[in-house]
Design goal:
With 500 residues, the protein is α+β, with helices and mostly antiparallel strands. Helix 6 packs antiparallel against helix 7. Strand 3 and strand 4 form a beta hairpin. Strands 1, 2, 3, 4, 5, 6, 7, 8 and 13 form a 9-stranded mixed sheet that branches. Strands 10-11-9-12 form a 4-stranded antiparallel sheet. The chain is built from 16 helices and 13 strands. The longest helix has 31 residues.
Amino acid sequence: MALVASAPGKVLLTGGYLILERPNAGLVLSTNARFYAIVKPLHEQTEPESGDGEWVDVKLTSPQLSRESLYKLSPENLMIQCISLSESRNPFIEHAVQYSLAAAHGIFVKNRKDSLHRLLLQGLDITILGCNDFYSYRNQIEAHGLPLTPESLVSFPPFASITFNAEPSNSENCKPEVAKTGLGSSAAMTTAVVAALLNYLGVVNLSSSRGQEKENDMKDLDMVHAIAQTAHCIAQGKVGSGFDVSSAVYGSQRYVRFSPDVLATAQAAVKGPLEEVIVDILKGKWDHERTEFSLPPLMNLLLGEPGAGGSSTPSMVGAVKKWQKSDPQKSQETWNKLSKANIDFEKQLNLLRKLAAEQWDVYKCIISKCSTLGSKKWIEEATEPSQQAIVKALLGARDAMLEIRNCMKQMGEAAGVPIEPKSQTELLDATMELEGVLLAGVPGAGGFDAVFAITLGDSSSHVIKIWTSLNVLALLVREDPDGVALESDDPRGKSCTTSV
């Protein structure tokens, strides 16, 4: 019996770079683009000659990359060995498997360990699939002579084959191996695999009804979170902020990172017993903070891919950290200004949500009017104090985003990395001038990934048309506040992108 779990991709609206240090917060939206992990037994039954010294067979299949990796896993010490070509290895999945099994070993009592052992002797067959929105399909669209529109993306089959970045990396834009859109595929993939394995092994019992977590689900989600964060950080070779894994587990949120010390034992445990390490981590002080967050009503997230093949976040973060050390005074000034703008942005969005709840009819009317006008004309539509309060908050959010962009740009120029490259600045400025656009920006660490826009009411279709004329491909991604969940069936039987 196959077990399927899925986890969403993310868009970090604010908090880029600052989110690496407590207590700075980031606002992160989860999306309808999801990564799926399908886990089932590899063999129908246990081999009769299986004894105590056996190895467990693990097969990992990634159909979109046309890759299949075979592993041998020792149930005794949880060592994993790849027996396929080394280029087909996936460290995120390897660590997800090891730490998930270590959790089962560390938590189960003797009789449950026996049944776990019998289950493992059937082997593990793991398939991973990412919605098309995680990857760039511009080249294929152009090769087919199709227009750069969302409709062209809809015409591709779900989980279509992925293009590799052919050009060599250069210092200005260090591209990843696969052309991505920047939705956090490794975090969503790791989270989906951990959730599927923990469910398959009977460690947790997640809900299949998204957005309706009960109290006992939260305990299970916390376990998925701790193991997915550990696997993701160890696979990356560093302890990141973890916002991408947190949103993959819990959905849209305001996030403050955990103290990196909680993973110190995992980083040190190169040869120690893994189950002791993972029990230690599960008992550790996970002091991350997350509070509910979503866009105010009648606002839409839109993502556009300008076609530069993505950026390497780790190399950009490294350059910014180097600049901070070399010019502490100037970097601290920029840091403080950016932090203030982030706080102001969050304040304005929270105020808009409050105004929508208190005066829905007025709010709805103003958003509808503003959706057909450029921002300079919004204030003319507000003739009463209640309307003026809403428009003032809209313009306040805009101004805060412009200040965030300005600080990020200064940071990039000082650190010598393209946080908001010139081409992106021109695109974002043009987008912010369009009717019904509240704001636009480069998510997360910046660079050449997809840009985002927040649009009002029904103005998205107009923005998509303009983007197409500017050679920007509007993606099918939308905000979806739900985190990790069990799926009732194999996603290949249905489309996993929402039509526009």
